[in-house]
Model the fold of this input.
Amino acid sequence: MDDWLKDSAEVEASWVTVDLAIFTLRGDQLMVLLVERGVEPFLGRPALPGGYVQKGETLREGALRELWEEAGIDGGRLHLEQLGAYGDPRRDPRGRVVTIAYLALGPDLPVPVGGTDAERAYWAPVSELTNDAEELAFDHAVIVADALEEIRRKIEYTAVATVFCGESFTLSELRTVYEVIWGQYLDPSNFRRKVLNTAGFVQSTGEQRLPPTGRPAALYCRGSAWLLSPPLLRGTGHTA
Done:
């Protein structure tokens, strides 16, 4: 008999958790926040921060609380959105646990501090995780991969790349965000032209940043548009 035809009496109690895939750029590397689990299951294994949703708590409230308890980071400064639900019946050896994964982004976030059931919290380069993803607890390798692809897609069509830059930034810093996340070189002149020709993407602050050497660079902030038209498409190796 097909699974969807099974009698409803086979339904079992489920628990709901939240997990957070939190990304930032540090030293021109895309980093994801991990915790070292201090309890079973998967004692000592790296995992995304997260935990059970408490009674009377919304999913978002649970995500923000877990972020603070396990890593000491205030989620109020992050771009936070739901990524998706993960409910494979074998994803957690303790029983049927459905997790709601959140995607969180922020500029140069601080060094995290572990707490509650996390032995420690730390930033891990995404490039290194890709080669050793099977070490992550639960199905967190799948969540990280889905989150990374979602970021790569969203910076094509939205202004979310500016979230990694802080309140003001140069176009070179914004280009670095795209290059790091996409893993490809972008021609500076073409990138500048595309960004400035996309209505509402960025706006000038009227100020400049003086580098140690070289010419002053104009500073920009995020503009009024969230959806980019035309989008900045990846895959060509450069912006045309």
Summary: The chain has a mean pLDDT of 89. Helices lie at 59-71, 126-131, 140-157, 171-182, 188-196. The chain is about 25% helix and 25% strand.
